[in-house]
């Protein structure tokens, strides 16, 4: 049995995605994965960063932060320190890069989508939960832009989610590590994958251990299973807001293939 | 009728205080006042800042922040800017100063209580909601320290809450302004008061208007009413966790008017 | 008898206002209140901050600083630390907000007035002395703009000054606290008021004490008396430069109660 | 034919490692991989960071920077900007983490090894060249500590090197991308591996593309080949300084298996 | 005739040195040189910077700043910018280095003297006026330490002052340039010299011009004359406070050679 | 005999200047003076800083840095500290000011030349080696602009180099101090001079010692000799690239003593 009571090594934690969690943002969710809770919002800005001006393309960027008591020990605020930690920079670069892979920035037009991931409570896997939640908030914001005729077509190419996997001290591969498992793991991997099983990002590392190609393959197998379930959860969450959105998006149901079809 | 539908000028918005909102902190609440939502946590640290070392006294300090999309327009993160705004500094100094007024720091011993107020959604009155919520989180953390025999006595001297009041463009005094009212007000006042009606902090200002002593008195009258109701809400919230805390806290207030009773 | 030798609780310290203290600024004074000495200057800039562009209105903003040895212990320079303290931010926001209350920014046109308050020597009441001095420097700069036909009308709506009041450990209300009194006070209040007795800003707080509504009223009564005397001192100072300024300023105030007359 | 004239997709660029490149550091190399040139140094400090004090273990940490004109366009210095970019943070965290995987920090004792990687000229693959060069500089510094009896045993567990691989716009897998290839690649992967073929770190990502499990495997196959050659180059470089170092290290020859044996 | 009305090229501006200008510092002066006005203070701290600990020696360090409206155009505060300019750093390093040349830091003991130079009004020569004023404030603070038996001997080795000289567009050498002269000069030199005519610091530069050895000699000749007069002014200023200080310092008279004798 | 083995007090260390050291910059050299090694590059940017816009003139500016292990003890990176030290600011201001003295910025047109000096290895005299190397890199970049018809005339007015001189503890004047000599010197002087022997910049200082006019003259005599030899080295280095540059540069100097001749 696993440290948080799960029975199987390839078992995902319970995931919930509450849509329209906040009043002001164009898209927002509260995603929970076990005890990990992240608020993800998507904000539409009608301009692009200087390096993209006058190219007819948009941009998607992400920021990530934790509340000071998201963790067992209080963390000093980065705003109080006056700078971001390397960990934060690394995570927000990862989130932005992953999301850009599935957005057609030409269809988006000269706009920036700011995705904010704020971890309210942390119990392992905050960066992967952020990506999974961020995709949902982003899809909501973009769907509303179609609904409001600000976009002609839904610019998402394919759905995307993320999960962690790791290898514990006994060599056991585990899916979706909770904090206690993560702290004790020899190898830690974060996997971002699309609905069709294509890889977007793979980051595997062992701080004081190494791993074989065979182990790497098992980590990816576990991740692939988890991501399929997470994409189901995203579809389920987005379905719930169908009453208020136009027909084209209702295709995004668990059994319909076409999340992003706008026919 | 008021801009958010309230019927009376001296009517408070609906207040809810959800205790133990987060898993890790020693005390935590989610306070909502109308559409304003703030997570307040209290963290106990077993040391004091350098200027207080070896004096046998403790310290209470506060930090305040907003999620970027707590507001209608996205705000740039202070961590990204690399510094706190003057507004944030002003607010967190106010919260800390107010809380210290009602804590007996000698009874607290050489410890620091860090109070974090993170605004999840803003609709006016975030600093006063932060104070009201912060007091509750602080009381929870201190009650647990008594329960765990880390403290001999509960070091809170008296209960405390805060509310805003203002004067609108027609000269009407209003209690507990929502954002739309606040943005249009000529005069804005924040009032922090104890259960016995003593003033802790009064900050009244008019950016482009002035006010009379008579108006000031009406603002304080409105504030006093609101604060009595907020203290009732705090007592109600703390009562809910009574099963898990010792008897002594059930009659905690100095003068038997009973800190936490609403029976 | 008071700690600095004054005989009455409602007695102001000796105030002097030396006009045209510096050569370069459009308006400048050295104000002394007892041992507290502040250089206040007003600078006219022919543009406004981005948020005000093309609105036909001006802006008044303030900055505040202390020399390192203005105080008994040397303070580290904020420039060396690389950031402003919360105290400085709070004070400069207060000064700017107060001054804006009495300037008609539409009459000012698209200009910014920068008010700089630099404390040369500190003995309590530096923020209130800054406001009283800053108003005088600002009025000088604006009067010269009228004289030079850069402004058609003098854009000051009403005169304004500021003073502190407090309650000592024995419950005695005191006006215009010197540093020694301030350090020992239970309650500290800063009051900004116009010549006609209207309130601009009230900030009262007790770090480790609370106060009643009755005490609050006495603090305001004391403040009101002090402010009348400070406005007389401002008028006296401005009168001295009348030889060099046009007639219109000799009866500048809105209701003939005469901004600058002390004849 | 490849953009820089190489004939084979799995061909490494010419690698040279000049040892003792600088006079002062305990270990230093100039590593060149094609047109990419990096100075790597290792500095021994006789203390550890606060979080490791009194645990009997050491630490290895890395810093990375580029000269402003290492690149075709001049980059603003991070020292002038006042902060590190996310890219720099990400790279130096990667280098440090990778090196720690192959150092037995208990054998190192309470010391920190600072590894500095300064890119003099950039033409793709600066982070992987940094890791390959950094390992050599680190090994030199540690070997000298053994020689000087500051260490009883050589604390390196196994040799390590790094290389990039990618997929170009036609789906062709390429080893060791030069800048022009890297800028045009759909997928980019950095691989850190030990002499025995165990993975230390895998980071694969596609900014605007995705990749399959099969492609991932080919990228790893290419990387594995490249790393074997890079480890040969490291061994060759270290062999050249054998005259000045003790016998135990001479085992680190191209044909001997055991770089780190000290039996 | 010179731009500020002086008749001779080697004529110093009027210098005044007002001692004990501020209440709190151990030593303080207001020095004026023509229209340039600088407040210089000396603060005694009973510890040394880390690099000097336990060496039985003291330290003298300086900080320099300008009020925003010391100049014709308002300067942004360095505290607001969050960092010191290169000009400020250069000047405060110069002041500190010059003062350390004439203080016997072993006699000073493990103490730091902080010298603060704050320019109230600038009209050229602020760095040299700062040095001349700073020496006087420093001497006052050290004399008082002798008087209070905190020091056995007066640790000043020799008196010191500073002045500028320059070459104008017509090749004329000028002493003690006012701002208007300085802005138009081809060559600018700052000279720090002791009472006995020994050089402490020479900094000569031409931004868009060069100069000959012969011109350099004339600049030094002018500087030497000016510095003798400035040292007379220092002696005169210090003599005025002799009533309050012990006999040994009275030797510091205009006609006595020995400022620093304590035999 | 001198500490690094030189036989004469007025003997320069061996100087080498390797041109086109880096691939990307418009001009670049590796200059070595004894054990001191500096990479100097010149970058052409087709715009000027805001204060020079639309004036038809260019700008030359310099930045200076050291690798962390350029020195015997590792230095913390300024990028990691988040700010430049005063020493760095002082040096880069000196380099820029010196270079601007010999460039006709009107002939340069509205362009900025960024000169970067990065010290790879330090053994005294890094700032003077930087100036000598920087001039060569600058001349290379400007010559290429003439060659490419981006400039009509070569905008360098005269050649320039820099060297240090000092006085040791026995009063001996020394030219071109190595680190060990510099650390023990009583007086340190940096001299920047043109080919025709005109002074550009003189900075002489004694941290804990003073010096006479006679000593100052000897320091300048030594400097003058050294600079003539350094200018020969620059000419020699530039000659090597003559095959690739147009004829006009072969007789570039103002008085036919021939900028680049080494006949």
UniProtKB/TrEMBL annotation, chains A, B, C, D, E, F:
rRNA processing recorded as keyword: yes
Record keyword Nucleotidyltransferase present: yes
Superkingdom of origin organism: Bacteria
Keyword annotations: Nucleotidyltransferase, RNA-binding, rRNA processing, Transferase, tRNA processing, tRNA-binding
Broad enzyme group: transferase
A Pfam family recorded for this sequence: RNase_PH
Limits of the Exoribonuclease phosphorolytic domain: 11-141, 161-225
GO BP annotations, alphabetical order: rRNA 3'-end processing; rRNA catabolic process; tRNA processing
EC number: 2.7.7.56
GO molecular function annotations of the record: 3'-5'-RNA exonuclease activity; tRNA binding; tRNA nucleotidyltransferase activity
Catalytic activity of the protein: tRNA(n+1) + phosphate = tRNA(n) + a ribonucleoside 5'-diphosphate
Binding site for phosphate: 87, 125-127
Family membership noted in the UniProt record: Belongs to the RNase PH family.
Function per UniProt: Phosphorolytic 3'-5' exoribonuclease that plays an important role in tRNA 3'-end maturation. Removes nucleotide residues following the 3'-CCA terminus of tRNAs; can also add nucleotides to the ends of RNA molecules by using nucleoside diphosphates as substrates, but this may not be physiologically important. Probably plays a role in initiation of 16S rRNA degradation (leading to ribosome degradation) during starvation.
Quaternary context: Homohexameric ring arranged as a trimer of dimers.
Name of this chain's protein: Ribonuclease PH
Organism of provenance: Salsuginibacillus halophilus
Gene: rph
């Amino acid at each position: 049995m696993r440290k948080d009571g799960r029975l199987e090594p390839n078992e995902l934690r319970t995931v919930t995605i509450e849509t329209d969690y906040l009043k002001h943002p164009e898209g927002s969710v509260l995603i929970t994965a076990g005890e990990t809770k992240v608020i993800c919002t998507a904000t539409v800005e009608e301009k692009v960063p200087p390096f993209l001006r006058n190219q007819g393309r948009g941009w998607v960027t992400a920021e990530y932060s934790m509340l000071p008591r998201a963790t067992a020990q209080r963390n000093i605020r980065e705003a109080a320190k006056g700078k971001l930690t390397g960990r934060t920079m690394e995570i927000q670069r990862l989130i932005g890069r992953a999301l850009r892979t599935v957005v057609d920035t030409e269809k988006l037009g000269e706009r920036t989508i700011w995705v904010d991931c704020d971890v309210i409570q942390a119990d392992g896997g905050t960066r992967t939960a952020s990506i999974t939640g961020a995709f949902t908030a982003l899809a909501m914001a973009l769907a509303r832009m179609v609904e409001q005729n600000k976009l002609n077509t839904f610019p998402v190419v394919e759905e995307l989610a993320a999960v962690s996997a790791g290898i514990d001290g006994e060599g056991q591969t585990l899916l979706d590590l909770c904090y206690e498992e993560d702290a004790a793991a020899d190898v830690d991997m974060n996997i971002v994958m699309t609905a069709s099983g294509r890889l977007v990002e793979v980051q595997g590392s062992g701080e004081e251990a190494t791993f074989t190609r065979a182990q790497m393959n098992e980590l990816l197998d576990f991740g692939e299973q988890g991501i399929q379930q997470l994409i189901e959860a995203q579809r389920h969450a987005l379905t719930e807001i169908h009453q208020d959105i136009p027909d084209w998006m209702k295709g995004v149901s668990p059994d319909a293939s076409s999340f992003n079809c706008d026919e």
